[in-house]
């Protein structure tokens, strides 16, 4: 286990901020706003990564922090914002249920996450908090995918989920084996690229990213 | 060890060459040569493992035991079958204007990358690398699902990537938890052979959490209900040779992951917990798939649902956990891979002959095309699990294992669902074979190679259904033993 000599209090604070931002994403509607929040979310994650890197004195955790900034704070949001700006459709996502209901579901998921964290690392600050945050954020990402009927928001949901998993990995292992970590970043990049291609085609062919229009295949 | 590296290098080289050389005749030659070379190397690696024991190297990143060896042989042989079948299939598709000539090289390139990703997933001994390879299989095969560039294929590919990436995200969480559960006892590793050997050192609480995440994650890729919704779309809209690979091999690769984790979890926390989960997911999958099979109109979707059924049967057998059930599970995996991919290839021919994927349009098949028609009928009988085909034998072994282990109720439910799926397939079969003949289809070119592929696939299935050779028996027994079957 990592011993945090520097910044356990700060980590708790960052953890709460990460959780709040993910929760906020559930209620947001505009694409640009969601993407900006995602970029901020990733920036906080990069800071947590850097602090962890300092504490475990491991070079490749620093590398992961830098990679997070380059890929998730800058590259992906920029590319997505550029794509969204070319869309001529109404940039607003429709929720399947209303916002209060989705928050209630989110609170339920948070309690489940807290339970799992307690099973894994009972009573160890800041680990239990961070683990709760990580699992909860990944579940919120899942919720974004399920509840929003828009392809752009679904991509943001997938990326948010991945941020949650990354946080869990960081807290539990203090950096996975190097090749595995490189492989994970590589996969994220490729997945985003592929989804970007599909989004462009959807925009071009359907003139919309509303997934309600993707309804030919049933049963 | 060098053979294994070469095994990965050839599909990669072939994928690159397919893009560089633009002439489609040369592309086809490159793809054919590559697939045959890969198959030869796959068999050579299998020979190495079966005579010289497991191969380990590169700090556990490369690790091939008997189970991986079986997977390698399945991937390379069915991969070669798919590429050889593509030769005539793609030519016909281009002639019918479904896609343009200049995209053919991309098709072969993607196909090779897809095979490479699957090979990578089974040769690695590191569960983290396995995760990376599984995600790569999603990406490379998504390119093939959306290959026709229609609205429906875009929809299928979108669902496929979003759902499988989300699902496999949970598998990453499971992988992280597995790593964490090994930190106190073993010092943190994702190498499955070490995890397996020192499973008593694993933290049982986190290992339980890990297993449920893994089951949801890789279960999504394996098409277990309720995470299966992407599967019928993706499998029915990909070009047919790819559907064969997706259904026959990729599902097996995901199942391979579940098998590995199941073995580790069973020896770390006991058989009851993973067993109950697997049996539940397995039974729900078999039952749901059997129900959906009764109402299908598209025969490629029908085959896709049948894959869900068979994955459910394998999960069920893993959950039973006895040595005989594990033997049956691996046997079923092999039989399903070969039968289903062969049947998808045949379905591709049927689609070309009748120009429709609708079951209602395919009538009096034996009269229209005696050879392909007979193969189609035999293939459907094979996946329905009727004797003399291999799937009958393995289903029988699994159910026998269930009843002898005293799990009567669940075995009865499984038996009932399997019979229902059989009835569904038999109903369609009677309509396809004996129904009034549809108006005479337009002439189609005859090829010898596809027929040879169908014959090899189905006759091998008939053979193992009638008689399991001694070497196969020993192999399956060895694998069941290594997975901890008591």
TrEMBL record, chain A:
Q: How does it sit in the membrane?
A: Multi-pass membrane protein
Annotated keywords:
Cell membrane, Membrane, Transmembrane, Transmembrane helix
- Where does this polypeptide localize? Cell membrane
Record-annotated membrane-spanning stretches = 6-28, 35-56, 62-83, 95-117, 129-147, 152-172, 178-199
Where is it chiefly localized? membrane
Where does the signal peptide begin and end? Answer: none
User: So which domain of life are we looking at?
Assistant: Bacteria
Q: List the GO terms this entry assigns under cellular component, sorted alphabetically.
A: plasma membrane
InterPro entries the record matches: HyfE-like
> What is this protein called in UniProt?
Hydrogenase
TrEMBL record, chain B:
How does it sit in the bilayer? Multi-pass membrane protein
GO terms for MF = oxidoreductase activity
Keywords annotated in UniProt: Cell membrane, Membrane, Oxidoreductase, Transmembrane, Transmembrane helix
Task: Please tell me where this protein is predominantly located.
Answer: membrane
Q: Please state every residue range assigned to the domain named NADH-Ubiquinone oxidoreductase (complex I) chain 5 N-terminal.
A: 62-99
NADH:quinone oxidoreductase/Mrp antiporter transmembrane domain location is: 125-420
Key word Disulfide bond present = no
What's an example GO cellular component term for this entry?
Answer: plasma membrane
Q: What is this protein called?
A: Hydrogenase
- Source organism per UniProt: Candidatus Aquicultor secundus
């Amino acid at each position: 286990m990592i011993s945090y000599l520097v910044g356990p209090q700060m980590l708790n604070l960052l953890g709460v901020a990460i959780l709040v931002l993910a929760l906020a994403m559930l209620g947001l509607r505009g694409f640009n706003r969601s993407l900006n929040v995602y970029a901020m979310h990733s920036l906080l994650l990069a800071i947590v990564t850097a602090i962890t890197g300092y504490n475990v004195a491991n070079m490749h955790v620093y590398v992961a922090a830098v990679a997070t900034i380059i890929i998730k704070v800058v590259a992906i949001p920029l590319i997505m914002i550029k794509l969204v700006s070319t869309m001529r459709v109404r940039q607003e996502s429709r929720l399947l249920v209303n916002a209060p209901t989705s928050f209630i579901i989110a609170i339920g998921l948070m309690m489940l996450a807290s339970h799992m964290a307690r099973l894994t690392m009972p009573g160890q600050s800041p680990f239990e908090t961070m683990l709760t945050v990580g699992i909860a954020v990944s579940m919120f990402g899942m919720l974004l995918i399920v509840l929003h009927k828009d392809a752009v928001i679904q991509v943001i949901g997938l990326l948010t989920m991945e941020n949650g998993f990354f946080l869990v990995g960081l807290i539990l292992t203090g950096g996975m084996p190097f090749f595995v970590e490189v492989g994970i970043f590589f996969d994220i990049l490729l997945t985003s690229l592929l989804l970007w291609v599909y989004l462009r085609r959807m925009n071009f062919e359907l003139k919309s990213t509303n997934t309600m229009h993707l309804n030919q295949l049933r049963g | 060890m060098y053979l294994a590296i070469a095994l990965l290098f050839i599909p990669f080289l072939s994928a690159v060459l397919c893009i560089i050389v633009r002439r489609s005749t040369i592309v086809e030659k490159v793809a054919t040569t590559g697939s045959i070379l890969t198959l030869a190397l796959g068999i050579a690696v299998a020979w190495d493992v079966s005579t010289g024991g497991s191969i380990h190297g590169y700090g556990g990143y490369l690790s091939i035991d008997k189970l991986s060896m079986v997977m390698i042989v399945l991937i390379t042989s069915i991969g070669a079958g798919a590429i050889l079948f593509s030769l005539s299939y793609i030519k016909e598709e281009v002639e019918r204007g479904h896609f343009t000539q200049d995209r053919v090289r991309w098709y072969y390139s993607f196909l090779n990358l897809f095979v490479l990703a699957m090979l990578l997933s089974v040769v690695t001994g590191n569960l983290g690398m396995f995760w990376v390879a599984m995600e790569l299989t999603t990406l490379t095969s998504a390119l093939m699902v959306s290959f026709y560039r229609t609205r429906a294929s875009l929809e299928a590919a979108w669902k496929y990537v979003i759902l499988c990436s989300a699902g496999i995200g949970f598998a990453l969480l499971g992988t992280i938890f597995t790593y964490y559960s090994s930190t106190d006892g073993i010092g943190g590793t994702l190498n499955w052979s070490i995890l397996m050997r020192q499973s008593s050192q694993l933290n049982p609480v986190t290992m339980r959490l890990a297993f449920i995440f893994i089951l949801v994650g890789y279960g999504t890729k394996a098409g277990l209900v309720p995470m299966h919704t992407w599967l019928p779309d993706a499998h029915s809209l990909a070009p047919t040779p790819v559907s064969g690979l997706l259904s026959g091999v990729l599902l097996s690769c995901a199942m391979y992951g579940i098998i590995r984790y199941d073995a580790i979890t069973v020896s770390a926390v006991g058989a009851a917990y993973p067993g109950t989960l697997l049996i539940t997911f397995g039974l729900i999958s078999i039952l749901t798939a059997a129900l959906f099979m009764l109402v299908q109109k598209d025969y490629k979707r029908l085959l896709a649902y049948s894959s869900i059924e068979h994955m459910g049967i394998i999960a069920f057998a893993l959950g039973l956990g006895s040595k005989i059930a594990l033997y049956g599970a691996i046997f079923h995996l092999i039989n399903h891979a070969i039968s289903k991919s062969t049947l998808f290839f045949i379905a591709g021919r049927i689609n070309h002959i009748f120009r429709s994927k609708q079951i209602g349009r395919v009538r009096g098949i034996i009269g229209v095309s005696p050879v392909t028609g007979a193969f189609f009928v035999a293939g459907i009988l094979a996946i329905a699990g009727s004797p003399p085909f291999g799937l009958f034998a393995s289903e029988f072994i699994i159910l026998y294992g269930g009843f002898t282990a005293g799990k009567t109720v669940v075995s009865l439910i499984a038996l009932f669902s399997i019979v229902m799926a059989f009835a569904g397939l038999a109903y369609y079969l009677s309509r396809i074979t004996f129904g009034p003949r549809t108006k005479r289809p337009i002439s189609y070119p005859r090829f010898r190679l596809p027929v040879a592929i169908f014959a090899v696939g189905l006759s091998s299935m008939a053979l193992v259904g009638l008689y399991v050779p001694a070497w196969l028996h020993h192999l399956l027994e060895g694998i069941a033993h290594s997975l901890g079957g008591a």
